Sequence to fold (67 residues):
Amino acid sequence: MSLVDVERLRQIAEVEFADIVATFPHHFHDGSEGNVVESHLGESPEGALREFLAFVRERLGIVSGDD
Fold:
């Protein structure tokens, strides 16, 4: 038995943070803890990682021939 009801915490968080970011819990902090941005990454871990790394490459100004 768990001491913490994880599902209940998730429900509370969804209510409390819904006004901060509509895609909660899918979000990221863009440059600072206070700048919360919606995340629309794909559902598959592999696809989401590719999208995230493309975002990082863009931010760093790295050109890739793989896209």
User: Anything to note?
Assistant: The mean pLDDT is 82.
